[in-house]
Amino acid sequence: MNFNIYDFTEFIISIDNWLKQLLSPGLAKITGMALIGVTFLLFVTLLGLSIVYIERKVCAFFQQRLGPMRVGFWGTAQTIADIIKLIFKEPLATKNSDKFLFNLAAFIVLISPFMVIAVVPFAKGLHALDFDIGLFYVTAVSSLGVTGILLAGWSSNNKYSLIGAMRSGAQIISYELSIGLSLLAIVILTGSLQLSVIVESQRDGWWIFKGNIPAIVAFIIFIIASTAESNRGPFDLAEAESELTAGFHTEYSGIKFAFFFLAEYVNLFIIAAIGATVFFGGWMPLHIGNFTFFNEAMDIIPPIIWFFAKVAALIFLLMWFKWTFPRLRIDQLLQLEWKYLLPLSILNLVLMTIVSLTGWHL
Amino acid sequence: MEDLLNKAETQEYFINMGPQHPSTHGVLRLMLTLDGEIIKKVEPHLGYIHRSIEKMSEKDSYYQMVHLTDRMDYLSCHINNEAVCLAIEKGLQLEIPDRVKYIRTIISELTRLSSHQLWWGVMGMDLGAITTFLYGFRDREMITDIFEETCGARLTMNYNVPGGLMFDIHPNFQKRTKDFIKHFKKKLPEYDELLSGNIIFTERTKDIGYLSKEDAISYGVTGPSGRGSGFACDVRKRIPYSAYDKVEFKEIIYTEGDSFARYKVRMDEMKESLYIIEQLIDNIPEGDFKAKTKAVIKLPDGEYYQRVETARGELGVYIISDNKKNPYRVKYRSPGFSNLSALDTMARGGKIADLVAMMSTLDLVIPDIDR
Amino acid sequence: MIKAIINYFKEIFTACRTLITGMKVTGYYFFHPKEIITQQYPENRATLQMFDRFRGEVVLLHDENNEHKCTGCSACEIACPNGSIEIISKKEIDPETSKPKKAIDKFVYHLSMCTFCNLCILACPTDAIKMSKSFEHSVYDRSKLTKVLNKPGSKIMAGIKE
Ligand code: SF4
Ligand code: SF4
Q1: N or C end of chain A, less CB within 10 A?
Q2: Is the distance from CB of B58 to CB of B70 less than 8 angstroms?
Q3: In which residue ranges of chain A is pLDDT below 70?
Q4: A320/C26 CB distance under 8 A
Q5: Tell me: the pLDDT tens digits for B220-258?
Q6: How confident is the model over C71-78, as a mean pLDDT?
Q7: Nearest to B173 by CA among B118, B110, B117
Q8: What pLDDT score does C89 carry?
Q9: CB contact B131 to A (< 8 Å)
Q10: Residues B217-241, buried b or exposed e (16+ Cβ, 10 A)?
């Protein structure tokens, strides 16, 4: 087995071969799938825990506080302590709530992030799936989460939850459009929906630099729309703590509440990952055209670090939004989408087509 | 499609906002009649934090009844104390030393500032910008430190006694206050950058929660909320008490009557308060910190009324005395109660999110409504 | 028409500008962690100093001979608006004049009822009581909040009269 931090392709293939040698073909396939599933489960849990911790620290620093400091060194074990507390809490359900849907909703919200994370290329060769319609799959699947939210709000038998869920339904469905259109702008340049091809196409520079103004506009629209789609502040109307107490998950407690929490943070990661892949080259190190010396210097840093650094930077940007801005009102939110983002992204798409036809991009 | 829409029945529904709700800031219960997200009616229900302060005052001596007013509008507790003391002093026809008047005015303005700072922080939080809350508290902390050093307590200070003050100001008082003014003058522009200018914030507050001047007057909406509707009701200007006749300041009036106008009134008032303190802080006259009073105060027969301007509006103290050592009847006209009564008029036709913003700009303190 | 379009874009730009100004403020604090104002309370216990006038709880001052200045005059009890103080007095034989004299048996203080109004301190004619700076009042049983302030075996200082 040869492990290479710069290229995981052989590593993955060797694991595959090893499994095939050991087991019968059918069993090998099942074991392989189980292996991937467990890896992602562990990864998502770890990811959730660390992003929650980071968010709390970042938010504290924005607010001139220190944040959690007690459990572990600088409070690093705080989220683990929280999870343990949540596991031990009693899972309550309100009277007359639809128990089946109520329990189901907590799992549904987790399904869509798991489905998206499968196509995210973490490094060269390190991905579970590499579709030729990768980006299309991402936009299609990521909107599944809203069903969970709607079900949670509906089955809770609580008016606050219902209002929150309805808001979130309207919100996510409309912002889907802008996300799709802004991603399309880059697809025009790459000519492919496959995420690995998109990453490869940025070998001589990231699209945000190469793609001229339309790429930057597309990125801004993407980041706004995806914040809205993941229900994060300033678009956290579905939860709207000061209006609806906790919106759609008001009635959830214990570990089921933790699922909603986890889903929110994994979604945050996914947005940042997709944003980084499409606009900032994913795991591709920073390359500038033909400066071979510079490019080689950049190549020393392993791609996986590049990937996570970019994702972290984008997550930080999203946190910065959340901890600075007030929340929008529901009609303003829809106005922003239909009056500003959607026309702009269509216009941007046209511009991008012109740019790509005339070859103004690098 | 038309048919289907007509057949579909819509129904208004109730929601209980409160008594436990993050943005009612206390145990206020609002019964909302909603049509989707549109508010049809708001009915406030009170009584969850009634402590019968007025009745309790009847059994207390005149010295003792002062400390209860700390617990009414706890964010302007010094001003409440001052109001009661002024009413009692009026009854006794006491001559109050100038030093007392100056100190009372300075601390009143500091109280107003701290109240407005907290309000600003909470206003941001109600609209979803939680960071403002911490920034507001950061600056308020300096004022509470000043209070703690001079009065001995941070919130319920009880620094006034009938006839003057409990003790003289702390030697550090002037220096600390000046430090605070310097600090806060630097931070105030930040408040504007973070909220007042922010497009989301202005969109959320402009033309929302309109209250006309006529309505403001007929509901008795006073204080910054009334002045946002163009109702010139600043007691400090109309019927000056303490040292307010010796200082120069503007009465802030906006005529728009929307949430943003009420917001702006408070923001500008903070600047005026700083200006008032600046004028007084170096000129505190020498003298006693308390006029001589008897150990047992008995107010002569009669009725006494004193109004002051708290951070929330006009507070009236009404005492009936029958020449005993405790008052016969006490009544407080609290600003929060009248301000709340205008909420229904303002909120109709708005959205739930607007209601939260409106309540914030009315700056309700529930214990003040429900004494 | 063109004007409307220009206005449309102007709106977007001013909106973005206001948002960026806000982000600058929070961003400044993020990158200046020196401005953090958090005090870590139990850790800084040793250095934490309350202000002199801080009203923590009422204490009866004792000197090194276990003597206090309270004559048992009950002025503080009367001044207290909510009955937090109860003076239980006893008759004692004065060793000098060998006449019976009033003295405190128990100075009962209900911390749970006290509103820290400071009126008792102002009322005391002999300055026997004071507000202490302690503020860590939490206990597991509320009966522990009822305290007897005079230490066992303490007596009144010589020369203190009502
Ligand atoms: S501080 Fe006030 S409430 Fe407390 S014991 Fe003294 S007089 Fe009573
Ligand atoms: S503490 Fe002071 S006021 Fe109270 S009984 Fe003793 S001497 Fe009298």
Answers
A1: N
A2: no
A3: 1-6, 211, 240, 289, 360-362
A4: yes
A5: 888 888 888 888 888 888 888 888 888 888 888 888 888
A6: 84
A7: B110
A8: 80
A9: yes
A10: eebbbbbbbbbbbbbebbbbeeeeb
List residues of A whose CB lies inside 8 A of any C CB.
58, 61-66, 69, 320-321, 323-325, 340, 344
Instruction: Say if the Cβ atoms of A326 and B15 lie within 8 Å.
Output: no
Q: What is the pLDDT of residues B17-37, one digit of tens each?
A: 878 887 777 788 888 888 877
Predicted confidence band at C161 (pLDDT cuts at 50, 70, 90)?
low
Nearest to A277 by CA among A132, A44, A120, A112: A120
Mean pLDDT, chain C, integer: 83
Could you tell me if B177 and B111 are in contact, meaning their C-beta atoms sit under 8 angstroms apart?
Answer: no
Tell me whether C27 touches chain A (CB under 8 Å).
yes
- C81 interfaces chain A, CB cutoff of 8 Å: no
CB neighbours of A37 closer than 8 A, spacing ≥ 6?
A: none
User: B352 vs chain A: nearest CA distance in angstroms?
Assistant: 7
Closest Cβ–Cβ partner in C12, C26, C40 for A69? C40
Q: Cα(first)–Cα(last) distance of chain B, in Å? A: 54
Element (H, E) at B366: helix B366-369
Give the residue, by CA position, lying nearest to ligand 2 atom 8: C73
Chain segment B294-329, per-residue pLDDT in tens: 878 888 888 889 889 888 888 889 999 888 888 898
> C-alpha distances in angstroms, B55 versus A299, B32, B86, B322, B371?
79, 32, 20, 16, 10
**Cis status, amide bond into A234, omega within 30 of 0:** yes
- Which of B37, B137, B208, B359 would best serve as a mutation to test chain A binding (most A beta carbons within 10 A)? B37
At A268, is the secondary structure helix, strand, or coil? helix
pLDDT of B264 higher than 60: yes
Is A325–C33 a contact, with Cβ atoms under 8 angstroms apart? no
The rounded Å distance from CA B228 to ligand 1 centre is 41
| Pair of tokens at residue A184 | 């399309």
Q: Which residue of B22, B129, B135 is in closest CB contact with A326?
A: B129
Which residue, A301, A281, A266, A286, is CA-closest to A111?
A266
What is the overall mean pLDDT for chain B? 86
Give the closest-approach CA distance of B77 to chain A in angstroms.
26
Give the span between the Cα atoms of A161 and B129, in whole angstroms.
21
Q: Which residue of A has its CA nearest to C38?
A: A65
Question: Residue A290, Cα to own-chain centre: how many angstroms?
Answer: 32
Q: Which two tokens stand for residue A241?
A: 């703590």
Domain edges within chain A:
91-358
The answer, for B196 touching chain C at a CB cutoff of 8 Å, is: no
Which residue, B204, B203, B201, B209, is CA-closest to B349?
A: B209
Give whole-number Cα distances, A169 to A141, A149, A151, A230, B356, in Å.
15, 8, 10, 12, 22
**More confident call, A6 vs B118:** B118
pLDDT tens digits along B178-212: 888 998 888 888 888 888 888 888 888 888 888 88
Q: How far apart are alpha carbons C84 and B337 in whole angstroms? A: 31
* Cβ C26 vs Cβ A323: under 8 Å: yes
Indicate the pLDDT class of residue C95, thresholds 50, 70 and 90: low
Ramachandran region, residue C74 (left: φ > 0; alpha: ψ -120 to 50; beta: rest):
left
Burial classification of residue B313, based on how many CB atoms lie within 10 Å of its CB (0-12 exposed, 13-18 middle, 19 or more buried): buried
Written as six digits, the tokens of A175 are 């912002």
Q: Which DSSP string do the residues of C38-80 spell out, in sequence order?
A: ---TGGGTTT----TT---EEEE---TTSEE------HHHHH-
> What per-residue confidence (pLDDT) applies to A4?
67
CA angle (A263, A265, A271) in 5-degree steps:
100
What chain B holds in terms of domains, given with CATH numbers, is: 49-370 (1.10.645.10)
Q: Which among C30, C31, C40 is the top mutation candidate for probing chain A, defined by the most A β-carbons within 10 Å of its own β-carbon?
A: C30
